Amino acid sequence: MKLGFVVALCAILLPMAFGQSSLSTSPEAAFVSPDRYTNAFFGFSLPLPQESNFHIAQVKSPRGEHYLFALGREEGNTTLVISAKQMNSGDAQQLMRAAPLVSLHGRDFGRGISDQKTPEGRVWKAIYLTVLDGYLLEINIQSLDSNMAKKLEDCVEQVRFFDPADRKSTR
């Protein structure tokens, strides 16, 4: 997992070292370390699980949607996916408010938690929705392991927001 983080981090930081500033103008603009994901475009950061068997997953975005980051773990068929979809703020607010609201460090999120029996076992799911600058930000968790799903929920609920122009406040 550490090698994957180093490779991803280098792929993100090298263009910056050579003066390419397009990174911060894309929703996918992010920094990944072994313990944290930070999105420079939207201005948020969240801790990552410390279990060593997670890997960064490659996910292709459908048209009009941005997959920002994904983690996967074979054990328990566990995934955490962060995506954003540009949309009318009113529509985004309506979607966010369709689920019970929870405040995470001063920002409202719609949060849905469920479990469903499947042929593979009981699947635990959580979804967090918030509106950021004309985008609906969505964080999805899915796992056959209820304990791991809870650990990922704990990571999401430690999300911190910052002004993307102020790079010093990401912790």
Question: How is this structure best described in words?
Answer:
The chain has 171 residues and is α+β, with helices and mostly antiparallel strands. The chain has helices spanning 2-17, 89-96, 146-156, and strands at 30-33, 36-39, 44-47, 55-56, 65-73, 78-86, 101-104, 107-118, 121-132, 135-143, 160-161. It is built from three helices and eleven strands. The strands form two sheets. Strands 4-5-6-10-9-8-7 form a seven-stranded antiparallel sheet, with helices on both faces. It has a four-stranded antiparallel sheet with strand order 1-2-3-11. A hairpin with a 2-residue loop joins β9 (121-132) and β10 (135-143).
